[in-house]
Amino acid sequence: QQPVQSPQAVILREGEDAVINCSSSKALYSVHWYRQKHGEAPVFLMILLKGGEQKGHEKISASFNEKKQQSSLYLTASQLSYSGTYFCGTETFMNRDDKIIFGKGTRLHILP
Amino acid sequence: DAGITQSPRYKITETGRQVTLMCHQTWSHSYMFWYRQDLGHGLRLIYYSAAADITDKGEVPDGYVVSRSKTENFPLTLESATRSQTSVYFCASNSYPAGELFFGEGSRLTVL
Asked: How far does CA B33 lie from the centroid of its chain?
């Protein structure tokens, strides 16, 4: 079952912050975040495992609330290079068979 | 070169024809995946494999066949292509459960 991402699309000006959410109806073992530029393959950003950890990658960080089966991706002081589609991928406890199911994506457009 | 490669990158075929998309990785990753990407649906898992000779269905397996006789190869076959299978197909691999996914460049398939 696909995780649900919100919002579907965001338009920001350079320097503004954004939050992308990912939620699942099932207990999560891990959450992946990827970014995809138009016409390219998705590129890995980070993985969060159960335990409520938060990770960072330059000005991009994420949190994972396993009790709520939710993860959020935080982009601070956004740059033009952050434009693209962001996908969360989840692995659930029920499906500890290592398959990763992705949400429909959040399109992020950064204006100069 | 090391990495994960897909072929062909572009393919146009007709309804009812058989098509095979190839995926080859040089890392000896245990896990391999096939996703299709369509506007409005994000990335949907078709089939995945945990090791040679072990494959399992994903979210949208109907109309597709996979095999994995060697660790490095994971071909995806459309036995009788339909227009609804027009899509961009991504192969991916990782080396351990819940690990970072490495994506191929994608294969754009058009079924007329």
From this structure: 6
B108, with CB counted inside 10 A (0-12, 13-18, 19+), is: middle
Contact A29 B33 (CB under 8 A): no
Distance CA B74, CA B78 (A): 13
Q: Which domain holds residue A90?
A: 4-111
* Neighbouring C-alpha atoms within 13 Å toward the C-beta of B104: 32
Closest C-alpha among A69, A56, A62 to residue A29: A69
- List the single residue in B31, B41, B103 with the smallest CB-CB distance to A41: B103
Domain total in chain A: 1
Distance from CA of A54 to the nearest CA of B (A): 16
* Sequence spans of domains, chain B: 4-111
Q: Does domain B4-111 have CATH number 2.60.40.10?
A: yes
Res. B99 pLDDT band, cuts 50 70 90: confident
Residue B50 distance to chain A (closest CA, Å): 8
CATH number at residue A12: 2.60.40.10
Q: Which residues of A touch B50 (CB under 8 A)?
A: 97-98
Per-residue pLDDT for chain A (112 aa), expressed as one digit of tens each? 899 999 999 999 999 999 999 999 988 888 999 999 999 999 999 999 876 666 666 789 999 988 899 999 999 999 999 999 999 999 876 555 678 999 999 999 999 9
| Contact yes or no for B33 and A99 at CB 8 A | yes
Mutate to test the interface with B, among A99, A101, A104, A106 (most CBs of B within 10 A): A99
